[in-house]
């Protein structure tokens, strides 16, 4: 890893590189993981796609969504060779800032329970206020 890492907002021309990162980071594919789905996300004011870039490569992502009531974090993904360097924490911190700016007073994060690297990371954020909410269960319908 040679260059510094910069975090910035995603743009339409980044879509292919984002989808590639999600594959490299072993994110479970979802029906919305398409160029059209990401294009729709980028076209609206209710969400922000943040990218971490190093040496011209996308090495991390996070999506911050605002539904007018609560902020939500999705698709926190870091390329395996960039993990354990504080990049995920930096992406979450920036997503927190962006969501707070949009009006969020509370943020939820969707985390795949069968990815121990992901759950371990979110458990490590307890000191910053994130906690696992055992009371909730998620239900999903694909249209």
Overall description:
- By secondary structure, the chain is an alpha+beta fold.
- The chain has four helices and five strands.
- Strands 1-2-3-4-5 form a five-stranded mixed sheet.
- The longest helix has 16 residues.
- The termini are far apart.
Descriptive terms for the model:
143 residues; alpha+beta; 4 helices; 5 strands; globular
Amount of helix? 25-40%
The separation of the N and C termini measures 41 Å
Report the strand count.
5
Using only C-alpha atoms, the radius of gyration works out to: 15 Å
Count of helical stretches? 4
What form results from the Cα inertia axes?
Answer: globular
Helix-strand pattern = EHHEEEHEH
Strand order of the largest sheet: 1-2-3-4-5
The largest sheet is: 5 strands, mixed
Write the layout of secondary structure elements.
Blueprint: E1 5-9, H1 15-24, H2 35-43, E2 47-54, E3 57-66, E4 71-78, H3 87-102, E5 107-109, H4 116-123
Parallel strand pairs: 4-5
Antiparallel strand pairs: 1-2, 2-3, 3-4
């Amino acid at each position: 890893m040679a260059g510094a890492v910069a975090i910035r907002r995603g743009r339409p021309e980044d879509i292919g590189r984002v989808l590639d990162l999600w594959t490299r980071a072993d994110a479970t594919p979802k029906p919305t993981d398409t160029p059209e789905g990401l294009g729709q996300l980028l076209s609206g004011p209710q969400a922000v796609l943040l990218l971490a870039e190093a040496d011209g490569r996308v090495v991390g992502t996070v999506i911050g969504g605002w539904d007018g009531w609560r902020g939500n974090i999705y698709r926190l993904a870091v390329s395996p060779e960039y993990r354990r360097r504080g990049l995920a924490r930096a992406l979450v911190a920036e997503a927190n800032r962006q969501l707070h700016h949009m009006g969020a007073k509370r943020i939820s994060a969707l985390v795949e329970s069968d990815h121990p690297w992901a759950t371990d990371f979110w458990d490590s954020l307890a000191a910053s206020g994130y906690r696992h909410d055992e009371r909730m269960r998620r239900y999903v319908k694909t249209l």
